[in-house]
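Obj.: predict assembly geometry.
Materials: sequence records (below).
Method: joint structure prediction, all chains together.
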Amino acid sequence: MINILNGIDSTSSALNAERIRMDVVSQNIANVNTTRGLNGKPYARQQVVFEAVLKDQLKPAGTPGSEPQMVRVSHVETARRQPRLVYQPGHVDADANGMVAMPNINIYEEMVDLMAASRTYEANLNAVKTARSMALQTLSIGKR
Amino acid sequence: MNSLSALRTLAYPALRTEAPVQTLSESAAPKSIPFTELEKLSPGILPNPIGVTNTTPAGFDRLVTGLVNEVSAKQAISSEAVNGLLSGQNVSLHQTMIAMEEASISFQLMVEVRNKLLESYQELMRMQI
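Observations (raw structure tokens):
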């Protein structure tokens, strides 16, 4: 297979990974008031962990750059933070003292994470664009 | 430089056999030299088709056919990605865009190669004998 856009593979994997990160962040934002998660407890904040992988792990690592290092989401982990206690006596999930356990999510933190994910996505898109315009400029050698 | 000069040598069947002969030996040489001899004289003058690394020397037609097949494969991948995206399969937008872009650039590359071929052919036709 001819390789037209070199080095795009790792960029493509990064776009994928950032997409997943954005999905997880928006899931956190969506569940900021969820007092009853899947396990009956309040929703717990999720965060992604990235890891680098070689594109073809069977081949030994050769010269730098020849074997692109891709990034992927290794797992989504649950933050170990205590739930926030809010006094709401009328709430269905309130305990005997009238305290409701809210998710341990700080909305400002999530917004900053969202912005960071979006900016990283943008940076990777720019890498794709640059590779494309480099290829087109190279093709223009043949034009007169 | 290297690939271009190889293209020029192989662009036309007549050039492929006769041009090196005339430059190498003026009168005593036979009209045409078999490819095996040519290979011995200047190893690496005959490029292999794309994707094939170590075979018998191949003609330029096979090289071009290989290029066309590659471009066709890229187009197939691209349309598959578009179909997957539109039918709601697990294909992401950026993968589709990158596949389309690759298909487009390789098609442009093919057009450039064709232009060069035609150009060299026309130059040959204009040549005074």
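Conclusions so far: Chain A is about 40% helix and 20% strand.
To do: check interface contacts against the pulldown list.
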